[in-house]
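Hi everyone,

Forwarding the result from last night's run.
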Amino acid sequence: MTPSYDRRGACPLDPRDQGPEFELLLTCCRPVAKHCDVERQIALAKQALDTKKVIELARRHKVSALVYCNLKQHQAATFDAALIDELARRYKNNAQKAMRSLQTLHQMAQLKPAFPVFVMKGLDVALRAYHDLAARDVGDIDLLVEPENLRAAYQMLATHGWTSNTSSFEKFFTSKILRNISYDIGLYRAGFPKLELHWRPTYNPYEFSMAHLNSSSISRLANTGLAGFNAEDLLIYLCVHGSKHGWGRLKWLYDLPNVIEQIELDWPLIWQRADQVGASFALQQALLLAEQYCGVALSAPMRAGFRYRISPKQWQAIRQFQSGPESWMESPPFHLLLRLYANRISTAIKPKILLWYCLWMFNPNIRDFELIPLPHKWEPVYFLLRPFTWSIRRLQIWKARRSAVG
């Protein structure tokens, strides 16, 4: 990492120091590589690349399909045949998952719900920015509804075989406390990717709320049968989501050059909206990463909102997330988790957003409801019990990691 840098206008990380295999992935951030990236791919192919490491890194960062889209364009002898064959297999599997996800969205649209249902990320981004359903790794199917429509949306999905594996999931419909401290339900159906039914876009109920989205008119379609975020909110949400996970996967970072270069964006509006929802820091950090990792040229309008001084520790946390084990994406080490929340706390623009993040440890979740079942009227007690239930959960995670290592 560069020891001296412009803290407002530069990213000091050098992704190339993670090795030639990681650098190869960086050249594959677009479905159709730029000429300079093609030349770099050829140069890297002449080095002694570790095929197994490339395959593992592509899997770890959820970019196998995108890497295949790039490397298949070269002459047959350029890269190891075993590498191309494995990437081709993963691309095919991803295409099948994409079709299953698209089937789910079309089924939801055909039910013609009497309330708005929005697509978050996923296929919406793949269609609008990559122009190829299979090029972007298919993860969860993310749908967004307003809180009062949560039960109706679940019942509609249940008609197609979707159900929760959480025994207490119905509490989400009846407990206002649980809805305020959670933001999605995981649903499952045999043969399909996991579906996450959201009632707000982000964990904190006071930032990027449904009210913010409604005020920006979510109306653009992307052939999924359901509406997606408008272009400006889509980019902001991708930045907030990537920041939430410490930019630990290249998949999230690669969305940025593709959205920026393939979708027309109103940058003054983007910065205005980012300020409104408290996402200016996440947006600034994301754009600097896109410049350093993906070669995105940052114009004056794109830099207009840069005002935060980003410390070396904040960049170092991203480097640690990217090189750490995949398990960190769901259960990061406590010191990195604190760094993520410190980023949000330091940039909160409203007192209630700041207060919520400061009290995050005391917010219970569905696991607490299952661990210690309490009557509905006693649910506020979960806030007092949270330090104990949280400690139990961290101990369980620690034991699981020890067992995995052993």
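Residues 15-326 form one domain.

Cheers,
N.
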